[in-house]
Amino acid sequence: MLRQKETEIRQQYVYFASTVHPNVVSSAEGELHWIHPQALPQLHMSAIVTKMLEHYALHSAEPDIYVGTMSVTPVGKPIVQWSVLKDPAVF
Length: 91
Hints:
- About 15% of the residues lie in helices and about 25% in strands.
- It contains 1 helix and 4 strands.
- The longest helix has 13 residues, at about 45-60.
């Protein structure tokens, strides 16, 4: 996911997976813990993460990799344009 904040371009990678091991490893970035999917809408998240979760809920069964670019509509509402990442097979 890409978005611009002031003069900075922010790039985020999000991965979804399943595991049979519920343990998490400590990180310098904060306390890690599992969150039940139904609890996600109550969390305070940036607009791009909220849009990403909405998109994932609609496309989670698809094998594609998506790239999202955040922008705003003419009335200032956040919007994400999604594209499937594909090898164009041209070089």
